[in-house]
Amino acid sequence: MALHRDIFWVGRQWAVTGAGIQAIDQRLRGVLDIEIARLWDDDLVQSRRAKAGVNAVDFDKALTVARERFPQASAPDPIVAQLAALGVVEAPAASPALPAMQLRAEGRLARFLPQWRVRR
């Protein structure tokens, strides 16, 4: 994945961007990137640091800058948590899932299928 357009810090191997921590080497295709929501997941951070070829000093600096830039979300209000545990506060309804698109061209040659066009 290409680097996010908002770049806050660039090191030798890592960059802190609007998407989180991203590896500068684009040949990795975003395999080692860490999203903003997972910056505080210590297991994920340790697994990325333990990978072969990772510059640990640069990674630690990027992690420090990213955690300062994107602070951990605060804990929810204890009163709201208690009301939710009692069932007073309802959770938002889940959005209905769209049906999966079904392809009906299996086992047929494409040149014999009818063509479709978008009507304007």
TrEMBL record:
On the tree of life, the source organism's domain of life is Bacteria
Q: Which protein are we looking at?
A: Uncharacterized protein
Taxonomy, top ranks, is: Bacteria, Pseudomonadati, Pseudomonadota, Alphaproteobacteria, Hyphomicrobiales
